[in-house]
Every structure is written in C-alpha cells, then in structure tokens.
TrEMBL record:
Source organism of this protein record: Fictibacillus terranigra
Pathway assignment: Purine metabolism; 7-cyano-7-deazaguanine biosynthesis
Protein name in the entry: 6-carboxy-5,6,7,8-tetrahydropterin synthase
Gene from which the chain derives: queD
Organism taxonomic ancestry: Bacteria, Bacillati, Bacillota, Bacilli, Bacillales
Isomerase among keywords: no
Catalysed transformations (reactions): 7,8-dihydroneopterin 3'-triphosphate + H2O = 6-carboxy-5,6,7,8-tetrahydropterin + triphosphate + acetaldehyde + 2 H(+)
C-alpha cells in the first residue's frame, strides 16, 4: 500500500454537507477509562486484604445513546466531567471505608455504588431524557482482577 499526503483538506459546506455528518440513526456505545488511587481494608475476610492497603483502580464506563446532527453521541469530555464530579472527587486518594456508605469495600460492592452515583448524574444533567444510559461498568482492583456490572443486571432484580 502506498501512502499519500492529502491534496486537500475536506471543508464543511464545500466538500461535505452538514446533513451528511450524521450517518445513521442507531444506538451506539462509547467507552472511556479512568484510574484512581485509594486505600481500604476488608472486614470478615481471612486473607491479606484484611490489612489496610491500596490499589490503583481502573474504571471502564460504557454509555450508549444516539448520535446528534454532527454524528457524536456523548462527548468523551462530558463523560470525563461526570466521572470527576461523581466518582473521582469522592474516591481518589481516599480511605474507602470512610467515604463509601457502610459496606465491605469489595470491588463487587463498589461497582454498584459507582453505577448508582454515575447514573444519578446522567439523570441530573438530563442525559437520560436524551436517550443515554449506562450499559456496562468494569472496575479493576488489580491488573488481573475486576468486577463487571451490566445494565440488564441493574434493571432486573435477580436477588434471592
């Protein structure tokens, strides 16, 4: 394959019409990753995690919606702003046992709290009424250990 430098940069309203920017009417998902550092310990656990220790958590958020007239669904910058307000400001460089509701600070418990807090912000900023919704969250506690939560699991109570 031969590579070429473009001879002309495409210009709006000259080379492409604004009405062509939105290519489809399908639901699509965008995903953004974040990291935060925090300390915690586990109660009623017989292993080394019963001791105070820390992690660099990796949080992967997937949000679906429909594209706007320009062809963008939810801007990555908007996802970042919601994350910073709802999650990072409350968990980064914090002692999780102190800042989270009364719970054992496992990834399995934390991921549900993160979902609820992020979802509240989607509603507060009117993203939900525009058709946007959380689809999946993955929370890595270590590079090889993580919890996953999907929309259908949050919408359907399967507890027993």
């Amino acid at each position: 394959m031969e590579f070429e430098i473009p001879k002309k940069v495409q210009k709006i309203d000259e080379d492409i019409e604004r009405s062509n920017l939105k290519y489809h009417h399908k639901r699509v998902a965008v995903t953004k990753e974040f990291t935060f550092d925090a300390a915690h310990h586990l109660h009623c656990y017989e292993g080394k995690c019963k001791n105070l220790h820390g992690h660099t958590y990796k949080l992967i958020l997937t949000i679906s919606g429909f594209v706007d007239p320009v062809g963008i669904s939810m801007d990555f910058g908007d996802i970042k702003n919601i994350y910073k307000e709802a999650i990072e400001s409350r968990l980064d460089h914090r002692y999780l046992n102190e800042v989270l509701p009364d719970m054992n600070t496992t990834a399995e418990n934390m991921i549900v709290w993160i979902w609820e807090e992020f979802d509240k912000k989607l509603k507060e900023y009117h993203w939900k009424e525009k058709g946007f919704r959380l689809e999946e969250i993955v929370l890595y506690e270590t590079p090889t250990s993580y919890a996953t939560l999907k929309r259908e699991w949050m919408e359907h109570d399967e507890s027993f």
